[in-house]
Amino acid sequence: QIDSHVSRPRHDLLDSSGTFRVLVGVTGSVAALKLPLLVSQLLELPGVDVRVVTTEHAKHFYDLAEVAVKIYSDKDEWELWTQRSDPVLHIELRRWADLFVIAPLDANTLGKIANGICDNLLTCVVRAWDTSRPLLFCPAMNTAMWQHPITARQVDSLKEFGYVEIPCIAKKLVCGDEGKGAMAEVSTIIDVVKQYLQKPEEPRPLTL
Ligand SMILES: CC(C)(CO)[C@@H](O)C(=O)NCCC(=O)N/C=C\S
After folding, report:
1. Atom 14 of ligand 1 has which residue's CA nearest to it?
2. Which helix (H) or strand (E) covers residue 86, if one does?
3. What is the ipTM of this complex?
4. What residues contact 203, with CB distance under 8 A and at least 6 apart?
5. Which positions ≥6 away from 148 have C-beta within 8 Å?
6. Has 175 been annotated as catalytic?
7. Ligand 1 — pocket residues by CB below 6 A?
8. Cα separation of 135 and 101, whole Å?
9. What is the pTM of this model?
10. What distance in Å separates the CA atoms of residue 84 and residue 208, rounded to the nearest whole number?
11. Is residue 190 packed enough to be buried (19+ CB in 10 Å), middle (13-18) or exposed (0-12)?
12. What gap in Å lies between CA 67 and CA 52, rounded to an integer?
């Protein structure tokens, strides 16, 4: 249980009524090291509640203890659902969230989403996402990966689905390459999220 060894507020999906609910998706780019910063900046926005959904590869890049909100990963899906009457976590998460921001979106998960592959908790939330709600994505990958012709095709696919790109930027990357591929600055991501901060009108049933 990922909560066992860190003392942080035990948030679950029940305690965030009346707020603007932001789900952060994090995938296996080294830019995932920015997750604690992104979460802490989001928590400073008025009335915002945050949950995280992580892929397994992303876990290599951030320190769990530095993230003060609940982080859902693949095993949580299977711990929650053991029999027919149990809730389905990726469906609970798509119902809960008013906005989904995937930061960083690595090359692998970009490819999965562009093709409807849903082989983990994060991609299942995307696959079930209600496109009337904003889904923002922040690509981050090595410059050579960014320049591969398939990248532009897949980014265009996500835009056709109605998802909003927060473009990557040029930087000297951690692997020493210089060029595009770095995740947008956290301050940029926060500025974009702020543009969506009003509650949808219709009341929504709180589940779980
Ligand atoms: C990590 C950070 C944020 C430091 O400024 C920046 O380099 C970045 O966004 N990199 C993401 C690109 C990437 O995944 N490179 C992988 C191999 S070069």
Report:
1. 141
2. none
3. 0.94
4. none
5. none
6. yes
7. 29-31, 33-34, 140-142, 171, 173-175, 177, 181-183
8. 6
9. 0.89
10. 14
11. middle
12. 9
